[in-house]
Amino acid sequence: MPIRHLYVHIPFCPKICPYCSFYKEASDRNKTQRFLDALLAELDRESARHPLQPQTIFFGGGTPSALSTPQLEYLLAGMRQRLDLSALTEWTLEMNPATVSLEKARTLRALGVNRISMGVQSWDPALLAVLGRVHTAAQAERSYELLREAGFDNVNLDLMFAIPTQTLAQWEATLEKTIALGPEHLSAYCLTYEEDTAFFRRFQSGEYAQNKEWDADLFELTLDRLEAAGYEPYEISNHARPGRECLHNLAYWQGADYLGLGPSAFSTCGSSRWQNVANSEQYSNHILSGQSALGFHESLDPAVRLSETIAFGLRTNRGVACTLLEPWKSVVDEYLREGFAVSDGERIRLTRKGKLVADTLAEAFMGAESATA
Prior knowledge:
The protein has about 375 residues and is of the alpha/beta class. It contains 14 helices and 17 strands.
């Protein structure tokens, strides 16, 4: 079967945000063209190994929009020449508001990108400064208008809550401002302190602290406001107008095979999972010299794939088929009894109470052995 989902990692950023744990590096025009050539060469190599007919493509990072308009045109045109796009329904590109121009947006739209995910995070200037963002609130609003002017009718805005110093009023104002703009999709993430970030070091030093009850209050406020505005919480952190769910992410959550291109990118195909080396210079050198850019590989046990399917499925409003959970009947019965989940006889879904502790609940299914084995 062809691989239907393609991820492309662009690591370059105009500025390194202190909370971000994804592989990224400062933009360097001297090595960008070589990097783009390596991406297309990797696509050639993988096309010879796997049949590719993508239904979704997702450009993430990093900041894909940190590439110039000619660079994006070179990369996207090269991909169009190499791929069968007859089944493509969704092509997403992540953008930073500071890197949006009308010319760039129109070029992306003309080359087939039909969905934009823009990292706004907050509309409050003080909080944008805390997060180390390079854009202003006014710039983000103008960038949103430019995307609409360029013809994009499927736009996601990324937001973040539980930011250090953030107040309830600030989060309410960000939600209301975003709702008023009317994007088709909203991602609202609770800030987490990831290792190897500046925020994590400040968390360890005691300068920053995490309050789970406060996080839960903000999460519940988010659900209330967005549901009232017509956004369905189809995944714990993702909310969409009907029919505007992110198809690429849904494929991940439903356990579909996917291919990743670029440094640090993961791929999962059948019982194999691998990751490219997380270094753009090494990646480019290896690919362009005909060597492997592999940094990690593992064979997945069927029990592991099942555990992942359950863990991700529980995060979605679709839930998990009861038949998949039969080996964990005692665990499921406890979750139902405690009000963490509900069942319609065919599927198990988390309640709002369960969503507040979803990661903890999912841990019960992450072992290879069932509770009744």
